[in-house]
Amino acid sequence: MTARRDGQESAPPSPRRTGRLAGWLAGGGAGLALAWLLGLMWFASSVPVRVEDPDTHTDAIVVLTGGSGRLSTGLALLAAGKGDRLFVSGVHKGVAVRDLLRVGRQADHKELAGAVVLGYAADDTVGNAAETAAWAAREHLHSLRLVTAAYHMRRSLWEFHQAMPGMVIIPHPVFPDAVKSRDWWHRPGTAALLATEYSKYLAAVLRHWIMPKAAQP
């Protein structure tokens, strides 16, 4: 028995009621886990395996730093005339265009330097989208080719479309050798990467659904 404020004693929850509540909680947790797992399978199956549109010209090419092959791909696209300018988002302070040309194996193409713009403000994908949106607005751009890793593309497109709803964005995924998305369930490293990326994607979707846009960072 437990005491109530009015001085009377109340009966403790019955074992049957407690067991029923525990069953509901366990069932709800199992249902959420199953939904997350099914979502992960969908997410993994939707990771791009090729570039669907390699040819369309855009006003600019955008590279998100943080993975192998992204910068070299962006510079190669710029050299091939697939975009008029290249915006590299998320660059470390102190890094100059000449450094990126060297890292991207385009050091001999000095004529590219004038078409490369570096963004230093972004620390994550949300920051990449905000930084790119501000630059694109200043430059009056209407179309972008987005270069990032294939596993990162869905979340990046989501954030970019939220930041620039009227922008035409063509995805241009790159495929790191270490990520084997086709048979990911056999590869613990790739499985962990996709699970993390899927969770981040869900968080991004929920953030935009729940939080008013003006209140978001």
List the helices and strands and how they pair.
Layout: E1 2-3, E2 9-10, H1 15-45, E3 58-64, H2 70-79, E4 83-89, H3 97-103, E5 116-119, H4 125-139, E6 143-149, H5 150-163, E7 168-174, H6 188-210
Parallel strand pairs: 3-4, 3-6, 4-5, 6-7
Antiparallel strand pairs: 1-2
Helix pairs in contact: 1-6, 4-5, 5-6
DSSP strand content: 15-25%
Enumerate the strands of the largest sheet in spatial order, edge to edge or round the barrel: 5-4-3-6-7
Radius of gyration: 24 Å
The CATH class name of the largest domain reads Alpha Beta
Q: Helices and strands, in N-to-C order?
A: EEHEHEHEHEHEH
Overall 3D geometry?
A: globular
**Measured distance between first and last alpha carbons:** 49 Å
> What structural class should be given to the helix and strand makeup?
alpha/beta
Task: Report the biggest beta sheet as strand number plus sense, adding barrel if it closes.
Answer: 5 strands, parallel
Mean pLDDT: 85
Helix percentage range? 40-55%
How many beta-strand segments? 7
CATH homologous superfamily descriptor of the largest domain: HUPs
Q: How many H/I helices?
A: 6
Ranges with pLDDT <50 over ≥5 residues? none
Number of domains: 2
- CATH architecture name of the largest domain: 3-Layer(aba) Sandwich
CATH topology of the largest domain: Rossmann fold
